[in-house]
Amino acid sequence: MLAVTFPAADVDPADRALLADRVARAARDLTRRVGGRPTPAGRPHPPASA
Q: Taken in order 21, 27, 29, 32, is the CA torsion positive or negative?
């Protein structure tokens, strides 16, 4: 699970939305690169078969 936080008063709402979108895209890309798949509600993946 990944969380990105920043002071609400210091960030323009449009910039915050753009950053959130970029972080989500990067997380999906990283998940694909490591051969995993996202799970609902951040539940851990079952162990890989040996």
A: negative
Q: What are the angstrom distances between the C-alpha of 39 and each of 11, 12, 15, 26, 48? A: 30, 31, 27, 16, 14
pLDDT in tens, 9-20: 777 888 888 888
Q: pTM of the entire structure?
A: 0.51
Whole-Å CA distances, 12 to 2, 3, 6, 25: 21, 18, 11, 20
**Are the beta carbons of 18 and 2 closer than 8 angstroms?**
no
